[in-house]
Design brief:
By secondary structure, the protein is an all-alpha fold. It is built from 3 helices and no strands. The chain is rod-shaped, with a radius of gyration of 22 Å.
Amino acid sequence: MAISSNNAHLQAVLDDLRSGFKRFLLVAQQANERRRIYRATVWELNNLTNRDLADLGISRSHIRQLALEASQKGRANEV
């Protein structure tokens, strides 16, 4: 009996570790996706001319803030 209860405890610990690792991977994937969106947005806006940005109502000083907002959209639905 002692051996099977130890095996059950070990199995429970391993299951907890697996689920924790899966959560870690999911969070890392979501962070990578947000980082990709941020970098793409900054790159695209930085490549616009000042006139194009003015037509959109965006100043160069707001590009990083806009990219951050773009990368954070939908974050409430994650995890």
